[in-house]
Amino acid sequence: MVSAKSVVEASRAAVRTAELNLSFTRITSPIDGIAGIAQAQVGNLIQPVNPNSGPLTTVSSVDPIKVYFTLSEQDYLNFVKRNPTQIQRDAANQKLNLNLVLADGTTYPYEGKFFVADRGVDEKTGSIRLGGIFPNPGGILRPGQYGKVRAVTRIQKGALLVPQRAVTELQGSYQIAVIGPDNKVDIRSVKLGERVGSMSIVAEGLKPGEIVVVEGMQRIKPGGVVSPKPFIVAEE
Asked: Which fold has domain 160-219?
């Protein structure tokens, strides 16, 4: 009787060992997402404790998906000036709606929300890294994709915009060449606001309707007479 019980217990132990060994043949990702191409194939011996074996694959969680982008130091400072306290900055960040322009020029159909800002400014690029979260129900977005993130941070009515190429910086001050009614050039000091793409906002020193020089700045002099031609702004 004792011998029979020993055989039963041994058989149960063998079953448990077989089930354990069988479980080693199935590897389950701890997160849901998209898996990359497997580095191992059926029949390979996998040794998890071996640091030289490398990962079997990489799984990325893509819904929602994190999108990282950069903000210039100047734009960051402008944002802080408009929102001097942390409470104001947090509230402004929560109101931001992020739009994503894909590599083919189309706009992603879902809006994103601000997620996180890096701790410091990159000394090489003069920018700070930000992150947003976008819903990705159809799996259109994949890790490593390129896109442009846009957001409306504030609305300034009646702003005067000039091409950035029309602005000359000289020892920390900014100048713009203005053409008068007699086609004479007037070099004028101006105060700039924020940049909007390839354009700059002129806060002081320029009036609506005045003509500025964009091309040929090196060839003009104060009081010189020019023959102006329209400048076409290239769309971004």
From this structure: 2.40.420
